[in-house]
Amino acid sequence: MNALRVSGRFGVGMMGLLLASVLFGEVQAADGSASLLATMWKWAPLIGQGFLLNILISVVAMTLGTVAGLGLGLGQMSPIWPLRHAAQIVTQFFRNAPWLVLLFYCILLLPYEMRLGGLVVAMPAWIKATVGLALPVMGNVSEIVRGGVQALPPAQWDSAEALAFNRRQTLWMVILPQAIKPMLPPWMNLYAVLIMATPLVSVVGVEEAMTLTRFALSAENRSELLLPMYLALLIAFFAYCYPIARWTARLERRFAVKL
Amino acid sequence: MNGVWEWFAWLNQAHGINLPVFYDSYDRQRFFAGLLTTLELSALSVVASVVIGLIGAWLLGTSSIIARRLVHGYVHAFRNTPPLIQLSFLYFAVGNLLPRLEGVGGSSRPLLDGFAWAVITLSLFGGSFNVEIFRSGIEAVPASTIEAAESLGFGRWRLYRHVVLPLALRICLPALSNNLVNLVKTSTLAYAIGVPELLYVSAQVWSDTMNVREMMNLLLVAYVGIVGVLSFGLRRLETALRVPGLGTVGGRI
Amino acid sequence: MLDTIAERPAPAAVASARPAAAPAVMLANVRKSFGSTRVLNGVTLSVKRGDVTCVIGPSGSGKSTLLRCINALTPVDAGTVVVEGIAVHDPALDKLALRRRVGMVFQQYNLFPHKTALENVMMAPIHVLQEDREEVEARAVALLTKIRLLDKAHCYPGALSGGQQQRVAIARSLAMRPTIMLFDEVTAALDPVMVKEVLSTIRDLAEEGITCILVTHEMGFAREVADQVCFTDHGIVVEEGPPEMIFTQPEDPRTRDFLGHVTF
């Protein structure tokens, strides 16, 4: 309830800021030019579609990154040491490289089409960008998996072994089911980081919300539009990310109490 | 040194691995200037974000409701919006509202250049996380330890200076390290507003020389190196400050 | 010990009639509630200078709160608390002046984990009293010698045993040169060997004439060392007097009942 009230107050504050910036712009605008609000309204559907692409990219990148990261994370705990070390190096590499650089890497170095058997799959820019975002997600998920598993008391491994479970059974039937809950908040945090990284793909020309906003701004070529348009874009992201952040914080508290 | 540069020229001729940033003096100059810019950008933002974090955490501990609300507003706004859009918003929209400086010959230039805006944005972005990190560190200092200090006559300021902050710093150092490393990685965003940092100059080099693959790999190695040095330094600090019997929260495992 | 049992006023007279020398600590009608829970229900108690007073009673009877009211860690709701002539109940209390005179030791030691044993002892005199570092260090070394922990001077608290930590905590309080020491169940978290170490340190203090007030479950110690024993229950002082009287012929049935469950 409290969270609802706080975010309500936040929403009112943000909208107030937006309106103030629009009014400020209207005052500045030359006589006879179209009203700012009408102009923004005109572009809203297009930019809204762009925002949907941001969400689509984030969901696909999160899915790819999570699946790959789970494998990599389990690799980090493998009893086979070359595999374990390789997984650790790969994890650290993708965790420490800047997202934007990995993005460029994929955009510029992945081929335009991929051949899977006899099938030719086209690789449009947004797919390559999604792969580029999935890579750092993978590195971070790998670390979350390792942290979650290692946070469990070692006695869990011992007791499973005493019950004659083999390593794989122990991992899938005893360890992972318990480790998933504490892994959830950092995983959701990672998603929030990812959605806030999606505007990066504008740098490589994918037509998401940020690209389209810049496009609209240059098409209109009115400096008084800058403030309200960027503010509106910030608010759109805030409206999407803030509830996720609150939910994550609540889960974190709940799991913390149980420990 | 010349021998090293020549080796890279040979590498290009013999194996086609083209890294002009090592054998061509012009490319070398701009590449290392970019590296220096990245280092400056990172260092300034790291320091400023820590200062912002400390001030914010201190304000959260005061009795003023207005100060607390403002800090909360700032933290939530900067934590929940994309840093790239923050940068564009501040550089293009807010920067556009600031007065311009008159230059020589009637030309004018903006009051703050792209580098300054990048430092401001990165500091505010990183600082919003640091506020929360410091606050949770301070909250994790046991009430009983604070009571013991109060019983010894410590006043509020001395209590913070000698007991609460030294303990809070040790408690939150792992989380702080993580955030500072992230901030250095985020400094690549300055590319988007044309600040000639490492990524920007590398892009210039690869579009001139068409050696995307080599430059990309060099760039990754450079960043992993910078981040590695910073993490190493912070880990050393952690070890140096470690005392027996004092745990950490949110630490690395 | 500075005075003898014969000189002590009768228990009933303590609260009303003030003896010629003002008591070190005087509580009158002190009340304290936490939310709807009444913890102190009108406590009246007087402690003579140089005396050792042991506060005993069942858990939850308000013993610790009583102690914390004396050095203003817990502000009182009503009543008067006067310590060495300082009105502790006064909202305009100068806490520093009070805490220079009153030292406190806690059940969980509460040493500063980021400082060595020696630094723990030196911190308050240097930063709070702003005394000369060399002078403080000499005093701290002397205190650590007295508690027989000089060899652990450069150890961090995490590397010391519970009993050692507790003795460092006592030395840390003594470094402020207090005239009154408060001990809040300081042996409750220790094993029997360590209890002995800590109690013998406290016994030494008592012999030096420092006014000591202990909340304790160590009945043997109370009987042997205390000048005055004070039994609390449900937020009031039920009965007080010299240990022989409280332990051998308690007047109140509640005291008798409590002592009947205690093993010495």
TrEMBL record, chain B:
InterPro entries: AA_ABC_transptr_permease_3TM, ArtM/GltK/GlnP/TcyL/YhdX-like, MetI-like, MetI-like_sf. CDD domains: TM_PBP2 (cd06261). Keywords: Amino-acid transport, Cell membrane, Membrane, Transmembrane, Transmembrane helix, Transport. It holds the Pfam family BPD_transp_1. It is found in: Cell inner membrane; Cell membrane. Residues 35-231 form the ABC transmembrane type-1 domain. GO terms for molecular function: transmembrane transporter activity. It comes from the Bacteria. It is a multi-pass membrane protein. One of its GO terms (biological process) is amino acid transport. The chain crosses the membrane at residues 41-61, 215-234. The keyword Disulfide bond does not apply. Its main location: membrane. GO terms for cellular component: ATP-binding cassette (ABC) transporter complex. The keyword Metal-binding does not apply. Belongs to the binding-protein-dependent transport system permease family. HisMQ subfamily. NCBIfam families: HEQRo_perm_3TM. This is Amino acid ABC transporter permease. It comes from Azospirillum cavernae. The lineage of its organism: Bacteria, Pseudomonadati, Pseudomonadota, Alphaproteobacteria, Rhodospirillales.
Automatic annotation (TrEMBL), chain C:
Pfam families: ABC_tran. Residues 25-259 form the ABC transporter domain. Belongs to the ABC transporter superfamily. Keywords: ATP-binding, Nucleotide-binding, Transport. It comes from Azospirillum cavernae. It comes from the Bacteria. One of its GO terms (molecular function) is ATP hydrolysis activity. This is Amino acid ABC transporter ATP-binding protein.
